[in-house]
Amino acid sequence: xKEAIEIxxxxxxxxxxxxxxxPIDKSKNEDIALKDLTISExxxxxxxxxxxxxxxxxxxxxxxxxxxxxxxKQYAYGQTFxxxxxxxxxDLILKPINRSWTQTISTNDVLSPFGLCIVKDEDxxxxxxxxEDAIPTIQVEAWECIIIDMLKKSALEVVSCFDFNKHFTRExxxxxxxxxxxxxxxxxxxxxxxxxxxxxxxxRSAFMFTLVSYKYGDLKEQYNSFQDYFELEFYKRVxxxxxxxxxxxxxxxxxxxxxxxxxxxxxxFQKDDLTRIICAILDNKDIAIDERQILRNRLIEGIxxxxxxxxxxxxxxxxxLKPSIGYVLLREKAKExxxxxxxxxxxxxxxxxxxxxxxxMMNALKSLLEHQGKLPEWKPDELKGRESHDSLEKDLDxxxxxxxxxxxxxxxxxxxxxxxxxxxxxxxxxxxxxADTCVKKTESFxxxxxxxxx
Length: 454
Description:
By secondary structure, the chain is mainly alpha-helical. The chain is built from 14 helices and 4 strands. It has 2 domains: 1-146, no CATH class; 263-453, Four Helix Bundle (Hemerythrin (Met), subunit A).
């Protein structure tokens, strides 16, 4: 007696159904209405692409592929996967092959683009069979659907931590649809609403990048298990998607940006778009401070990794990463330094407050220069341009002469610089009113640069 392995075929996507059968003799049918219809008695029902995945799993069972059969049984019987099992499963999924959903179906043969053909068995009955060349693609797609189903509950719990629906309005709603936002982690199109579909695509990308990072990254040693890794690392990526979603400029402007992966993945983005999105996320009050700090830390780590490993001829750093992420980090440093100045002011430490105000201005000025492409390139061993206090003042004069900044901006900078110098290097009585003026002039300077670089 054969062992039965039952799984829910609905985990696999379905975009169309074909029904093949034998024609009914309508002359013998007394129902006049039915005589005007083309009716057949179905002997083969094909759901595409679902049937290809089901046939592949049947192939595993009949041909006794030991590893895949073991994993299939564990999944079907609801048995717990070990970290080694997940690693084996990811080996089946993470392969550089073409996928069915990337193909354009334009031939008369509808089945072949899905990797299927119809053959006849020994009893002359029609049945589905996988085209040999399509087996690697269907294998990957089938196991991908299985791992999505295995992790779906955890994934949706993570997604539910963020109010995506707050920033969504359904367009052209059908009577069968409600206003609530829906999600799908599968690759095939599931919604006619462009924004809804693109968001699901972004979440799917975050899901798949989480799996890739587990398999090929070096962070998994920090976690107790694959499940712990998935939940926390997927959370970080979903937080990033939420930041992009809630700060997007148009309804349909949403995609996953792989900031938690290798920065080489960013090569298809434009500098201004990448800068705008990162700044919007870091400024988003709907995202917890800790989550924004995680992103800031990742930007520092990622750009450091890239800078120390890049080849000398690699232009990606100079054309995208330095002017974009370098600008963001300097901007964030200026804002954080101003916060420190305000805390010192509130605690009556006025001399130190002047020092922090000056360095907030310095970092803001450097962020402007980076944005304008005028900050020197980073040194080989550190993420720092070869600028000095004197060279930055010359740059400030140049910005004023070019009309980028004005004389008031220069006067504010000089005022704070003078007070900081006296506080740090001479006997000088610096009181509450002096510190308050420094804070206000620093705020004005940072706001000006923020408006210029938006």
